[in-house]
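Exercise 7.
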Amino acid sequence: MKINVVGTSGSGKSTFARRLAQQLNLPYIQLDALYWRANWQGTPDEVFMEKIRQQLAAQPQGWVLDGNYNRTRPVKWREVECVVWLDYGFTRTFWQAVRRAATRAWRKTELWPGTGNRESFRQSFFSRDSILLWTLKTWRSNRVRYLADMQNPAWSHIRFVHLRSPAESEAFLKSLTEQRAAS
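Solution. The predicted structure, written as C-alpha cells, is:
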C-alpha cells in the first residue's frame, strides 16, 4: 500500500503517519526530513524531487509518506493509492501547532537528525518564518486545495480518506487493525 498523509502544519500528520506505518508494517518517509538541510536551508527542487523518487522507488512494497509540499504531487501521487487528509478544525490545529512549537523550543529538540535544526521561542512565536504564521496562512487554502483534489479527474486513481477529528482518525486506525486481524 502506498499512502500519503497530508494536512495543515499542526494537524498531527507525523504522529498519525508514524502510527499508520507501524500498524501496516510499512516504511515511514517524512518529506520534511528529505527537504530540510542544516541551518534551515531547503533543498533545491530538482534535488528534492530526486530524493523523493529514490525513497519511493526503494520501497516497492509500499510506504507511508508524511507531508504536503504541493509542488511534489506529480512525483508522490503518481503511484499513491491512498491520501489520508487530516482536516481538523482551525482552533484544534492551531492549538496543536502552538503546543508543539513551545515543546520543541523548550526541549531544544533536533527536528531532523544531522541537520542541527531546532525550533526556538523567537523563531516559533516572533518571526516571519514562524510555523504558527504558516499554519494561519495555510489552513484555509489547504482545505480548498484538498477538497478540489478530491474532485480532480487527474487524481481519480487515488482513494481519499478525509478525517475531520481525532476520533475519526482513531476509528480509521482501529478499522485497519480489524481488517488485518480478519485477513
